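Schema walk-through. Below, the input block comes first and the output block second. Nothing else is stored per chain. Lengths vary across the set, and this one has 354 residues.
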Amino acid sequence: MDNLHKNILVAPLNWGLGHATRCIPIIQNLEKCGFTPLIASDGAASKLLKLEFPHLKHLTLPSYDITYPKNGKNFRWKMLQNLPNMILAAAKERKLVEKWSIKYQLSGIISDNRLGVYNPEIPSILITHQLNVLTGFTTYFSTKLHQIMFKNFNAIWIPDVSGLSNLSERLGHSKESNPKIKYIGALSRFRKIDSDFQYDLMVLLSGPEPQRTFLEKKVIIELQNYSGKVIFVKGIVAEQQVNLQSKNILFYNFMQSSELEKAMNESKLVLARSGYTTIMDLAKLGKKAFFIPTPGQFEQEYLAEKFNKDEIAPFCRQSDFKIEKLSAVENYSGFPTLEKDVDWAELFRFFDRK
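--- output ---
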């Protein structure tokens, strides 16, 4: 079927940069398959995608106003406080998408965790790695609330594999069957490139404030006692890229995909949050890593503990980080390189439906 005039709305959540970056290969492959992507988001996610795809149409969605507490122990309660804003933003999303569906003659919708971005008259897909939403003792309720929203979508794409050798484990796998769920394979904008190491360490920061800044300051202090060559990407998206060489550390405020792909391939070790998109990127490149999960974020703590238990990558709490802890990586295997690619042509046949 001719896809040349099929407009597909792609809408990632603005929560850190992970949802936006994992949508990059989706947008690239929609174009390769002849579709016309329209991108909708807000904040830093929107800025990043405008830099990556300046030739495409960009639309603005209402902000969920997600912020982290200064104390990680208050994370659950902060999310509950954010809930009314999220519900209101989702309602606004539905109205905007209804208008855009007519104005731009949309043939399909791909929403990455934006629960209000769907239309019952148009094939609508939700991308999520959270069949179980881990929130401590409220996990049952947060999971049920999340799964209730699945009914608004025609398909649920999980960026992982269904077998035992998967990345998300309990997060993306459930004992309850759902015919809408499809495991599409891990999403990464990167390719593994055989290259010599130029950096002993890459520091790759991301995530909402104020925890991103807290970690940046702590790591910079610790790097005063590190003699290796470091590339430090702060994850602050701006109109202009800024870099600064300070002794053995090369700082960047942000990098676009091609630059980051090269830098990660050329780095012996990556220090990062244990966000799921970062994990998919590390697995795609077969990297060694050290994780510092965002304080209080149960999902990142769970993933960090999983890969520590699997002897793939060590981790520590943010408050406990010392540069000497990086030496533990020598006793871990690192991520095995992912071999299976996503079958984009097969996935996009979904939009052939009426």
